[in-house]
Amino acid sequence: YDGSVGSQVFGSRGLYTRANMPLNNRDSVVIGLRRQNYHQNSSSYYYYGGNTAGWQYCDASTYSFTGSGISTAHELQYIKNIAEQTKIYLRSSRNFRFANLDDNGSSASGNLNPQTSRDSEIGFVFDANSTKSSVNYYFSRFTNEIGFNGSFNVNLDPTERHGIEIMSRYSLGSRINL
User: Fold this and answer.
1) How far, in Å, CA of 15 to CA of 75, rounded?
2) 146 burial class (0-12, 13-18, 19+ CB within 10 angstroms)?
3) pLDDT tens, 64-92?
């Protein structure tokens, strides 16, 4: 008969702290720190009975991986209120993402490295009662980015991304936004 048996476990513990510190009535600084560890284990036994000549001719396979790691992220942001409803900000951060069980389950090795990035951003925000608009420019450098190469999930070569994000929202009431 065809079938499979397996187990998957993913555990994570972390500490996160963030402080928003006003310097005066126009300027503030945000500092954040996150430290997290994880452990994951996956094992599977697959049986495909492709050959019906007998049980000894089955197409069986076993798959397993174990991964663990610790990473740290941090952020530093400066915010300046330039008018009552308008502010500008500068932000710099280091971020990470662990491969989850699905990422590792679809990789050739089963143990992808954590993805990390260094990010910078400058932005402008207008926030009135019914209208909120923002525009920002961002720049990110990724190391070990988790991506799909057409066959498997892999850690990609270092990459850079930059761009502009523009957002605007207008509230027509408590339940409708454009």
Assistant:
1) 14
2) buried
3) 778 788 999 999 999 999 999 999 999 99
